[in-house]
Automatic annotation (TrEMBL):
UniProt superkingdom: Eukaryota
Phylogenetic placement of the source organism: Eukaryota, Viridiplantae, Streptophyta, Embryophyta, Tracheophyta
GO biological process: photosynthesis
Protein name: Photosystem II stability/assembly factor
Main location: plastid
Length: 389
């Protein structure tokens, strides 16, 4: 719009000069033939200027349309190169939240995510470790943070103060996910498939599964699971449904696993698509979505844990899609490499590309909706997008 405005200012004096020259040419009509030629030339200049001015007007609403984008980028006080990994807000105070990332990044907001400031937690800075904080979750004023190397932080006052909870050195794998489930209660998952629950503020943990994924795969390797072996017994991604069920993708993407409350073991499943799985998660209606390498997106037929999927129509331009977040049963957003941002308004059957992030030179890793009107997209190099509706 600035360019169009500048061009408009440049044209207006030309029109004024044209009118003055025409007037002088009329006064000198009997002098020479060159005055007549000048009159014709000046009249033509004025006509061109008058015709050009209206052509500039459509650029004004186009620029305003960009301002009405459903996402805005939020500036963060962090170093370049930080990858943002998780975000959560205090349920009783939606304006108060925490943002986690690599390089020991913990940020806090008090205005719903519009501005952020670094948060120092002394108990997480006592040792010479560069922590990668993977997951944060709140239930009421009680909150949890887990990271790598193994660290567990707990708050009972909505994050005003944090305490560090000791962990066993025998913990199998790295902690990648935690979910606050109630007063003094939480559920924690490691990348080797261990699930632990606590009901006394993290001082004691009980195993919810009897063995790691590696042990399960070795025990069931002859059951027909393609590519199952000891060396693929870790997770690439893991996602939890509201009812407590989990879906996880193997580190090589050649199969996926599920777990439901009450089961003693993870259940491995062959992938129903040719390409390797990138990520999986839960739709708002209780079904599954599945992303494959190369930008494909599939939806399960029906709800719950099934193995039958059908491909959805997406415009990913060949870039990988890395995550999907549902705002409602009908509306969802998908994000991926090179600033890919896609939207669906029919539950995921068809997707269209949103250009809000086209100029962001980075990858978008995670889509999080905290409520109908509060959502965020997390990426690398400190990229954070806030949903503005």
């Amino acid at each position: 719009m600035a360019t169009a405005t500048a061009a408009l200012h440049l044209l207006l004096p030309t029109r004024r000069r044209g009118r003055l020259l025409v007037s002088r040419a009329c006064q000198a009509d009997s002098s020479t033939t060159t005055s007549r030629r000048g009159l014709i030339a000046d009249a033509a200049t004025a006509a061109v200027a008058a015709a050009a001015a209206p052509l500039l007007l459509p650029s004004i609403p186009a620029a305003r349309a960009e301002d009405l984008s459903e996402w805005e980028r939020v500036g963060l006080p962090i170093d370049p190169g930080v990858v943002l990994l998780d975000i959560a807000f205090v349920p009783d105070d939606p304006s108060h939240g925490f943002l986690l990332g690599t390089r020991q990044t913990i940020l806090e907001t008090k205005d719903g995510g519009r501005t952020w400031f670094p948060r120092s937690i002394p108990s997480a800075e006592d040792e010479d470790f560069n922590y990668r904080f993977n997951s944060v979750s709140f239930s009421g004023k009680e909150g949890w943070i887990v990271g790598k190397p193994a660290i567990l932080l707990h708050t009972k006052d909505a994050g005003d103060s944090w305490e560090r909870i000791p962990l066993s050195a025998q913990l199998p794998g790295d902690m990648v996910y935690i979910q606050a489930t109630g007063e003094q209660s939480a559920e924690m998952v490691t990348d080797e498939g261990a699930i632990y629950v606590t009901s006394n503020r993290g001082y004691n943990w009980k195993a919810a599964v009897q063995e790691t994924v590696s042990a399960t795969l070795n025990r069931t390797v002859s059951s027909g699971i393609s590519g199952a072996s000891y060396y693929t017994g870790t997770f690439n991604t893991v996602n939890r449904s509201p009812d407590g069920s989990y879906v996880a993708v193997s580190s090589r993407g050649n199969f996926f696993l599920t777990w439901e409350p009450g089961q003693l073991y993870w259940q491995p499943h062959n992938r129903a698509v040719a390409r390797r799985i990138q990520n999986m998660g839960w739709r708002a209606d209780g079904g599954l979505w599945l992303l494959v390498r190369g930008g494909g997106l599939f939806l399960s037929k029906g709800t719950g844990i099934v193995e039958d999927f059908e491909e959805a129509s997406v415009q990913s331009r060949g870039f990988g899609i890395l995550d999907v977040g549902y705002r409602s049963k009908d509306e969802a957003w998908a994000a991926g490499g090179s600033g890919v941002l896609l939207k669906t308004t029919n539950g995921g059957k068809t997707w269209v590309r949103d250009r809000a992030a086209d100029n962001i030179p980075g990858n978008l890793y995670s889509v999080k909706f905290i409520g109908d009107n509060q959502g965020f997209v997390l990426g690398n190099d400190g990229v954070l997008l806030r949903y503005v509706g």
